[in-house]
Amino acid sequence: MKLLNNQFSLLLIAGVIGFSACNDDEEASTMTVNSITTTDGTNLFGATSASGVALDQNILIGFSASVNSATLGNVGLFNGSNEVDAAVTASGSTVTITPAEDLFGGGLYTVRIEGVQSTDGTAASTVEANFTTRGIGLGTAPASSNQIMYVQFNANYVDLTGNSSMTHSQNSWVADRFGNVDGALYLNGANSGPGSGDIVEYDGDFISPSLTLSAWFKVDPANFPGSRPAFGVAAEKGYFLEVGGNIDWMKFTSSHKISPDPNLNYFGASDTDPNGDGNESGITIQDYTGSINALTTGENDGWAHFVMTYDVTTSLKTIYINGIQAMQQNLSLLPPGAQLTDLALRDRVVVTGNPIENIEAKLAFGFFASRNNGPFDSWNNYSLAENTFVGAIDDFRLWDVSLSTSQVEALYQAEKP
Question: Is the pTM of this model over 0.85?
């Protein structure tokens, strides 16, 4: 009896072993994803998510068997919940995702592979792989939750915050500071006479009591015999950056409320002019004594990083160039009754308090203000202007808070080439 039991046990074990061997054969025939890489060889399928991925790459997915191209409908590249416009093709055991445009810098992307089958009908498992592109993006910038505008100008005008929209464009594109083709906005001046200058305009809300503004720009000093405005909102009634004289000076003018202000309609302008005549009314705390030209034409192949911060709680307005504090002013040091407070749009006449007509609070790249902003003085009238900006602008950001010195330095280090 014991012998029969042993024989039965042996038969049972043999049956189990045989069944297991059959399962192994089935698993061996399962289609698998063997690799996910970019065209420059960056591995996107490692134990940890890849970072610093170049913006102009295709994505190559290697399978263990030839792919049926009719089953690629659920293969794609995603930025958050948004699918990236891309072509998905198969050749043998390789699937290629080819984005229609360069990816956004500092963005978190997901490669999603679902529903793929081999040419013999074997299904592959669902696979996802995350990676982050090179640069500092919307969610990785300092004080990212306070960003109110971020436009990368990668051959498009998209504000990644969704708070503003382009309403007019007259420009071309040029390589950015990383060498990415069409990676920066290019404005070519008014080659056809007054009122013909390249200009790009946005609708949105671009002014807050405290503000940080960040932009990269590149100019040819030969095109700046006098001065040219890089960008602005409503000219001196909002704010603007002006660059001049062989890049040996620049000025950021901003409009502020005045305190005390019983009528709530008084404004003053603050001209912050590092390395120039900006020491106005004794409010300047620090003024860069070196050459602005050296800062804007030295490192970064002539690209300059400009940042303006204004903190309404401290009244400090600060200019940074290439991460260096170039000028700081304390706007509370003006004479009593003239202290400047909230950065604001001057929409009232100072004396009477009556509304100023025809002000457009649009943000314009290439001039002090939008084409239709008014009332006009000769210097900020687009229809008369021949001094519109000549050069490139890239990675424009706004925050509704004042970034600290360390945050500005971190931003520069992250964004520089």
Answer: no
204 φ/ψ sector (left φ>0, alpha ψ -120 to 50, else beta): left
Instruction: List, in order of start, the domains of the chain with CATH numbers.
Output: 33-133 (2.60.40.1220), 144-415 (2.60.120.200)
Torsion angle of C-alpha atoms 194, 199, 205, 208, degrees rounded to 10? -70
* Phi, psi dihedrals of residue 396, rounded to the nearest 5°: -90, 130
pLDDT tens, per residue, the chain with 417 residues: 333 344 434 333 333 333 333 344 444 468 999 999 999 999 999 999 998 899 899 999 999 999 999 999 999 999 877 899 999 999 999 999 999 988 877 788 999 999 999 999 999 999 999 998 987 777 778 998 999 999 999 999 999 999 999 999 999 999 999 888 899 999 999 999 999 999 999 999 999 999 999 999 998 877 877 889 999 999 989 999 998 877 778 889 998 888 766 444 444 555 555 555 555 557 888 888 777 777 777 778 889 999 999 999 999 999 999 998 988 888 888 777 677 889 999 887 777 778 888 999 999 999 999 999 988 889 999 999 999 999 999 999 999 999 999 999 999 988 988
Q: How many CB atoms lie within 10 A of CB 2?
A: 6
**Are 173 and 149 a contacting pair, CB within 8 Å?**
no
CA distance 218 to 215: 10
